[in-house]
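Renewal narrative, Specific Aim 1. Our central claim is that a sequence can be written position by position from structural information alone. The example that follows is taken directly from our test logs and has not been curated for this report. It begins with the structure tokens describing the chain, in the order in which they were read.
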């Protein structure tokens, strides 16, 4: 009998913890946006997940002083263009259509460098 009571108590505790976690967990929702909308109201998008599409322009592939490969490009759509940063090799070539999922920062400081209005890409998909 004690075993069944302990098991029942543990099940209720687990259910309560899962319920509490779902209430307290922040909602992660990416804004589907355009470059123009983001740049017109950057404070609304600051440190938010965003998804946008456009044409890859000004592609630059580099290696950091620490030996990490990274790339940057501008994602151009009908409303404007916004700078994209990501580590690794660029999956899309210049002039290709791409969709980017990432986090927008109005100001990002990395060491002695400061970047403005940039998306750090989590995923770049070529079309």
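The sequence written for that structure reads:
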């Amino acid at each position: 009998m004690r075993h069944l009571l302990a098991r029942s108590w543990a099940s209720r505790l687990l259910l309560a913890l899962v319920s509490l976690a779902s209430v307290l967990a922040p909602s992660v929702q990416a804004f589907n946006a355009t470059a123009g909308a983001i740049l017109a109201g950057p404070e609304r998008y600051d440190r938010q997940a965003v998804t946008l599409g456009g044409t890859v322009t000004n592609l630059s592939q580099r290696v950091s002083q620490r030996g990490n490969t990274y790339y940057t490009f501008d994602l151009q759509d009908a409303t404007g263009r916004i700078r994209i940063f990501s580590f690794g090799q660029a999956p899309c070539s210049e002039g290709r259509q791409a969709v980017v999922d990432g986090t927008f920062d109005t100001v990002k400081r990395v060491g002695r460098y400061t970047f403005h209005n940039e998306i750090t890409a989590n995923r770049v998909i070529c079309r």
